[in-house]
TrEMBL record:
Residue ranges occupied by any RAI1-like domain in the UniProt entry: 38-383
Cofactors named for this entry: a divalent metal cation
EC number, as in UniProt: 3.6.1.-
Similarity comment: family membership: Belongs to the DXO/Dom3Z family.
Protein known as: Decapping nuclease
Highest taxon of source: Eukaryota
Record gene name: RAI1
Primary localization class, coarse: nucleus
Keywords: Endonuclease, Hydrolase, Metal-binding, Nuclease, Nucleotide-binding, Nucleus, RNA-binding
Enzyme class: hydrolase
Taxon lineage: Eukaryota, Fungi, Dikarya, Ascomycota, Pezizomycotina
Species: Paraconiothyrium brasiliense
Length: 390
C-alpha cells in the first residue's frame, strides 16, 4: 500500500516530530491467499497468583470440565474480586519471563516485534471492526520494535465508561455493562478446575456454582510466531487446557479459550447470524495469535442464564464465516497485519525514540507520530540490563 511519507511540522524553532500514515482502505489490496504464517510455538510462560503476583510457573493453569447448564451467570456479582491495573504494567511480566528463559538457554530470543497479544488482536481486526480505535506506544531497541498499550488513554476511557449513566432506554431489569463484564469470568469459574478432571474430586467440580469469582489469577503463554517475514514474540492469557500439556516442547498445546455469547434463537434471522459472526472475528484473532486450537462458547440467555456450550475449532472459523455472512475475511486480516508490520519497520527506526500509534477510524488510517516521551517505560530497566549482560 502507498502510505504517505512523513509530513513535517512547519514550526522552525522546535525540532519537528514526524507523522506517518498507513491507510486501511481499500481492503482489496489485502485480499487473496494469506502471507505465510507459522504455527505459534510456546517460548515460555508465567502465572499470576491469587494476589496477581508474578510466578514463574504453571500454578494458575486450569483445566476444562463441562459446566452444569442452567447456572445464573449473574450470581456472585457482589463478591467479584475484580483486578484492574492501577499502574501501567508495560511489557514488564512478558520481558521478565523472556529474560528468565534466556538465562537458562544463554541465547537471545530474537524477534522483530515484542508485544502483548491484545495489541496484535487490535491490529489484525482493524480492517473489519467498525468501532475499533486504538492507541499504542512503540519503540525501537537493538533490532526489535516493542509495542505496548497507551495505558493513560485506556485508563481514561475505562473511567469514562464507568461514570457514564446507563442509557435512558435501558430496561432496569436488564443486566448492565458491568454485569456483562462479570459474567465472562463467572463462566470461567463454572467451566474450569485447577487439576485435570480425572484427578479432581467430584465435590470440587460440583462446588463451582458457589465458588467466588476472581480475575486476579491468570496464566500467560508467550509464543514465537510470524507474519510473512516478520517474527513476533507475543504474550497473552490462556484460559485453560482441554487435556494435559504434551511432554515435548514443540508439540501443540491443547489450550482453550472460553467465551460467552447470547444464544441464537432456534430460527435465527440474518441479523442474528451477522451479529454472532461479527463477534467471531475477535474470538478467532485472539486465539489464532497464540495458537489456541479450541474456543468453547458458553451460550447464555439475554438475562444471563447458561443454556449450552459449543466447541469451535479456531482454524475452521474463517471458513465458516466465508460460507456464512462473509462479514470479515481471515486472509485479509493476516495480509493487512503483515503489510502494516512491514511498514512499521520502515517508520519506527530510531533507537530510543517513542512513537504513538493510533487508529483513526473515521479517517481509515493508522497514524504513527514521534513523541518526546522517554522510551524507558516500554522496555523495563531490568530487561535492558539483562540484555547488556547476555
Ligand atoms: P466474555 O468474552 O465471555 O464476555 P477473555 O474472553 O478475553 O478470556 O476475557 C474474559 C472475560 O473478561 C470476558 O468474557 C468478559 O467478561 C471480560 N472482558 C474481557 N475484555 C473485556 C472488555 N474489553 N470489556 C468488557 N469485558 C471484558
Ligand atoms: Mg481470558
Ligand atoms: Mg476467555
Amino acid at each position: 500500500p502507498s502510505a504517505t511519507s512523513p509530513s513535517l511540522s512547519t514550526n522552525d524553532c522546535a525540532p519537528s516530530l514526524a507523522i506517518s500514515r498507513f491507510p486501511i482502505q481499500p481492503l482489496n489490496q489485502f485480499r487473496g491467499a494469506s502471507a505465510s504464517i507459522k504455527r505459534p510455538q510456546e517460548v515460555t510462560h508465567f502465572s499470576y497468583d491469587d494476589d496477581h503476583q508474578y510466578k514463574e510457573d504453571e500454578s494458575s493453569v486450569n483445566y476444562y470440565c463441562p459446566p452444569q447448564m442452567g447456572a445464573d451467570l449473574k450470581e456472585g456479582f457482589s463478591t467479584f474480586r475484580h483486578y484492574e491495573d492501577k499502574t501501567d504494567p508495560h511489557l514488564d511480566s512478558l520481558l521478565r519471563a523472556v529474560a528468565s528463559k534466556e538465562r537458562i538457554t544463554g541465547l537471545q530470543e530474537q524477534a522483530d516485534f515484542v508485544t502483548w497479544r491484545g495489541m496484535m488482536t487490535k491490529i489484525m481486526t482493524a480492517p473489519f471492526d467498525m468501532f475499533a480505535e486504538f492507541a499504542m506506544f512503540a519503540t525501537f531497541r537493538d533490532g526489535t520494535i516493542y509495542i505496548e498499550e497507551d495505558f493513560p488513554a485506556r485508563a481514561a476511557q475505562r473511567a469514562q465508561e464507568a461514570s457514564r449513566p446507563p442509557p435512558k432506554w435501558q430496561d432496569p431489569n436488564m443486566p448492565n455493562h458491568r454485569m456483562m463484564t462479570y459474567w465472562g469470568y463467572k463462566f470461567e469459574t463454572l467451566a474450569l478446575i485447577p487439576t485435570p478432571p480425572s484427578e479432581t474430586p467430584r465435590e470440587v467440580i460440583d462446588a463451582r456454582p458457589k465458588a467466588p469469582v476472581s480475575n486476579y489469577a491468570q496464566h500467560c503463554s508467550i509464543v514465537r510466531t510470524s507474519f510473512g517475514p516478520h517474527v513476533l514474540l507475543l504474550g497473552g492469557e490462556v484460559d485453560g487446557l482441554s487435556a494435559p500439556k504434551p511432554p515435548f516442547l514443540n508439540d501443540p498445546i491443547p489450550w482453550i479459550e472460553l467465551k460467552t455469547a447470547e444464544a441464537l434463537p432456534s430460527n435465527p434471522s440474518n441479523r442474528d447470524i451477522l451479529k454472532f459472526e461479527r463477534k467471531l472475528l475477535k474470538f478467532w484473532a485472539q486465539s489464532f495469535l497464540l495458537g489456541v486450537p479450541k474456543i468453547i462458547i458458553g451460550w447464555r440467555s439475554k438475562q444471563g442464564i447458561l443454556t449450552g456450550v459449543q466447541e469451535l475449532e479456531t482454524n475452521k472459523i474463517p471458513g465458516m464465516v466465508r460460507r456464512g455472512t462473509h462479514c470479515w475475511d481471515g486472509n485479509t486480516c493476516i495480509n493487512f497485519a503483515t503489510a502494516f508490520l512491514g511498514w512499521l519497520r520502515s517508520v519506527v527506526t530510531e533507537e530510543g525514540k517513542v512513537y504513538r500509534l493510533s487508529l483513526e477510524k473515521k479517517a481509515g488510517i493508522v497514524e504513527v507520530r514521534e513523541t518526546k516521551e522517554a522510551a524507558e517505560g516500554i522496555v523495563s530497566k531490568d530487561f535492558d540490563e539483562w540484555r547488556k549482560e547476555l
